[in-house]
Amino acid sequence: MSADHHHHDxxxxxxxxxxxxxxxxxxxxxKALETVLTEKGLIDPKAIDEIVExxxxxxxxxxGARVVAKAWSDPDFAEWLTTDATAAIASLxxxxxxxxxxxxxxxxxxxxxxxxxxxxxxxxxxxxxxPPVWYKAPAYRSRAVIDPRGVLAEFGVTLPETKKIRVxxxxxxxxxxxxxxxxxxxxxxxxxxLADLVSRDAMIGTAIAGPRP
Amino acid sequence: xxxxxxxxxxxxxxxxxxxxxxxxxxxxxxxxALGLTLSGGALGAWTIDESRHARENIPPAEYLGASYYEIxxxxxxxLLERHGFVTAAEIDAGHKQMEPVTPKRILKAEMVAGVxxxxxxxxxxxxxxxxxxxxxxxxxxxxxxxxxTRLPRYARAKxxxxxxxxxxxxxxxxxxxxxxxxxxxxxxxxxDAAEIWGExxxxxxxxxxDAWESYLEHV
Lengths: 213, 219
Fold this sequence. Notes:
heterodimer; A: mainly alpha; two-stranded parallel ribbon; disordered N terminus; B: five-stranded antiparallel beta sheet
């Protein structure tokens, strides 16, 4: 396969970068479906607008970052996360769809946690919002359980060989939030400042917490 | 079923290639596909388990070549047709041709915030005590049903340790096929990588799944 050919395949796989047939087909297909369902009174197009706006502006990884920042700042809250993550997270106002049954898993000096759903796209929406494309795509779903170090390297994360890796495959209805290790030199920071150090990927386990590169 | 969705341990898909500053959506139709999928689910005619099974039934070559919103849309069409809300001819025509069955509910804009905040908890009480306890050594069953299951192929017939009893939940293998919720205890079961991947496995790697009780046997 030539380099050019490979490049084309790559673009095709990550639809939306090029206006290929699949993109055009899906646009028409989804529009047809929405039209039919609207004419039949089965959907409210304004509800779709509302759903999209919610996940674009209200429910996203900032929710999870606040959970992490509070866990770093408040040992009682961290303890609550270990015993009843759903309730602890709900106390900050983050509940509902794909966050009904939460578990928090803590990175330590000994162990790094990584979350995947090999069977579909299970993801803790209530704290992280909608999953990124790579999380739902075959490369990540296939390799996270067999070659997590290789996957992490592609995210620029290199762990010492002596560090244990724990991969959580979300095969049931539990949704996992990784609590990354608190970066050094952050003693005086407020929870909001700490939350700025917590990326979405750090809460999946494909990054570590720290200032945005 | 041993479908294209069951990806753990497969090879050849290339690097993960995360996208820097990835947008929430890559095209307008993806926004509509998200909303349609949630609005379709709100009709109350199918469960999340049936919808997952519809997605994994997409033929492998199509599933693996599709984006996830495309997978959702294809499965949504199948579910809407199966439950009498639309016909394939209507989707092709892009217009209503016949009256649909009556849904349990229709998701209106003013309901969205409440519905998303409530979610769809699927924990259910069961009468029995958990059969396994943390620390128990268990083996996953070896089966290959043509129907829905949440026991991935890579984790079948493997010995592991029960780490936690996570509560009792709707059993998807039944619920996906309209056989009732039949809740069971769910356990987090951890496996050494060597048990799953054998020679050359990362000695520092542990992989866990969340397994319904009937997936497990005492070793």
